[in-house]
Design brief:
- The protein is of the alpha+beta class and about 240 residues long.
- It has 2 domains: about 100 residues, no CATH class; about 100 residues, 2-Layer Sandwich (Alpha-Beta Plaits).
- The protein contains 4 helices and 10 strands.
- The strands form 3 sheets. The protein has a 4-stranded antiparallel beta sheet, with helices on one face. Strands 6-7-5-8 form a 4-stranded antiparallel beta sheet, with helices on one face.
Length: about 240
């Protein structure tokens, strides 16, 4: 697990002149003798190993008349799903994304059938399951999303760390400036998601090869970054 910490803080003291300080997405702060505040920013990133690989698997047929293309597509579709189930992928982990019959307007009465699924698998089996699908007839497969079972818990962990860091920053700054940190006046937060899909073009090349082993796929770690902006009163 990796933690990346970046912090910034600023203090605003009373002044005889009325003024205002504002950052993008943050409240406007009026500075006068009745408003003594301290602001603190903190960012925390939590990174973990993936628990789930979501594979995007699909195919498209050669051009032909609608009836024959549909028949060919049906055979390929059932062959891919059957192969995935035989590989141990439960039916509940396979979900249809799209399926449609496309007409080629440059060639009269010519069509192709396109179908796509998402398939959930353990990260360590991603390459194996992709190979199973391609062997069974998948031709437009390869994108992989890496995630965890409880994304909300990962976000909360990052947010909790950022909130704690923001308060620590404020306390350190208050001590250094010789004032006492007061109550919290305002707080805002933002959680960012990093995704690293594997592009389908890599698999298209692998489909034409005669390799004895599946592609070598290394799972991406899953990260959540939380940013907290807090405003405290100072005494």
């Amino acid at each position: 697990m990796m933690n990346v910490q970046r912090m910034a803080a600023s203090m605003v003291f009373a002044t005889a002149m009325a003024a205002s300080a504002q950052q993008i997405g943050q409240p406007q702060l009026k500075i006068d003798s009745a408003n003594r505040v301290l602001t603190a920013n903190a960012e925390e990133e939590v990174t973990v190993e993936p628990e789930i690989a979501i594979l995007h698997i699909g195919f498209e047929t050669q051009l032909g008349d609608a009836k024959s293309v549909y028949a060919d597509g049906s055979r390929t579709s059932n062959a891919i799903i059957s192969a995935l189930k035989q590989a141990g992928i439960p039916e509940t982990s396979i979900r249809s994304e799209t399926q449609h019959l496309d007409r080629d307007f440059t060639k009269p009465h010519k069509f192709k059938l396109v179908q796509q699924w998402t398939v959930k698998a353990p990260p360590e089996r991603a390459a194996e399951i992709l190979d199973v699908a391609i062997t069974a007839g998948a031709t437009s497969s390869g994108d992989i999303d890496w995630t965890v079972k409880d994304e909300r818990a990962l976000e909360e962990q990052a947010l909790d760390r950022a909130a704690g860091r923001a308060r620590e920053n404020a306390a350190v700054l208050a001590k250094g400036m010789g004032v006492r940190l007061g109550s919290l006046i305002y707080v805002s937060n933002e959680v960012a998601v990093q995704r690293f899909p594997m592009r389908a073009g890599m698999v298209a090349m692998a489909k034409t090869a005669t390799a004895d082993q599946p592609l070598s796929i290394e799972p991406h770690k899953v990260s959540r970054t939380a940013t907290v902006y807090a405003v405290f009163a100072i005494e």
